[in-house]
Amino acid sequence: MKKKLLTAIFCAATLFATPSFAADTSTITGIQANPAFYAKADFSVLKGKKIGITLQSLRNAYWAGVMSALEDVLKEQGANFTIVDCDDKSAKQVAQIENFISSGCDFIMVHPSDAAAIEDVCAEARKAGVKVMCWDDPMTNTDGNWILNNTDLGMAIGELCGKFINEHYSENNKAKVTVLGFPQTKILLEREEGIRAGMKKTADGKYEIVASQAALRPNEAQTAIETILQRHPDCKVVTGIGAGPMIGADEALNIATGGKIPEDMGVFTTDVTKQQLQHLADPAYPAKGIIGFEGSDVDTATACASMFALILSGKLPDHNVIRGVAPITVDNVEKIKAGMK
């Protein structure tokens, strides 16, 4: 099984070996993950381990897909695990971590609602002999962090969108753009700020942001775009911070155009879900580009489990492991779809 899983990582990494966009990780000290890095993981250390996982939220397709795939990996390796979410509430997440400690977990993974709010309880876990990993934030009281530079991830989304704008618009015919963000969450605010910077860097003077709205889930994004189109019917470019904004915007624009998407209409976000990939491959939707990570949800789950194994075995070479990013477009979408759970 280990060989099969690592093969999936190598296939995804081969696809992303020469990305058009590479996050500038100069602001974060750490090691850049690559196929050889994940291949060092010995999954046998997961057998019999009690693992607690607490996330911001499971109410989006990206996290649901990756966690479902992670469940399969952990079951296959004989680990005992519990996956919960905190509804983006720090106090609830602190209580979940305290419960993991008292229940005798060997390993805790946190995807923080607010990293600063859980530093102390993670320190308590480590004092109790529990290994702790953070997904997304460069925390201090952990044994390892698996992180993105979210500003630079946003930059990559913005640059991908900017290239599209350059192809279809000009200073005399500016693209009307909507940005769908979620400033309530620190990392997503950083991502949105990066999107704006990436568009400005790539297509300055060729677009106008006509609307900016918080929208994390598909229904929120669909409603937002439907409302925005009433005020700005010529808005044809949407960029956002995750799967929900792409899926919702796609549905709103599909309805508005009757599925006849003009070539100058496009939606650009991040995350990798089946529905996003289906939209990207279907000309009836305006999805044009996704900035992805390890590859499919199975590839991401396998890489995550590799982090668990490296930390548990004491072989993580650096406190911060920085995930790579790369674009998914119509040119490579079928390869990613083939690896989805």
Explain how this protein is built:
With 341 residues, the chain is of the alpha/beta class. It has two domains: 178 residues, Response regulator (Rossmann fold), CATH 3.40.50; 143 residues, Rossmann fold, CATH 3.40.50. It contains twelve helices and 13 strands. Strand 7, helix 7 and strand 8 form a beta-alpha-beta unit. Helix 1 crosses helix 11, helix 4 runs parallel beside helix 5 and helix 6 packs parallel to helix 7. 53% of the residues are buried. The N terminus is likely disordered.
Which key terms come to mind for this protein?
single chain; 341 residues; Rossmann fold; 2 domains; 6-stranded mixed sheet
Given as residue ranges, the uncertain stretches (5+ residues, pLDDT < 50) are 1-26
**For the report, how would you describe the main beta sheet?**
7 strands, parallel
Order of helices and strands: HEHEHEHEHEEHEHEHEHEHEHEEH
Helix share of residues? 40-55%
Radius of gyration: 20 Å
- Give the number of domains: 2
Head-to-tail CA distance between termini: 16 Å
| Count of alpha and pi helical runs | 12
Under CATH, the topology of the largest domain is which? Rossmann fold
Task: Explain briefly what this protein structure is.
The protein has 341 residues and is of the alpha/beta class. It is built from 12 helices and 13 strands.
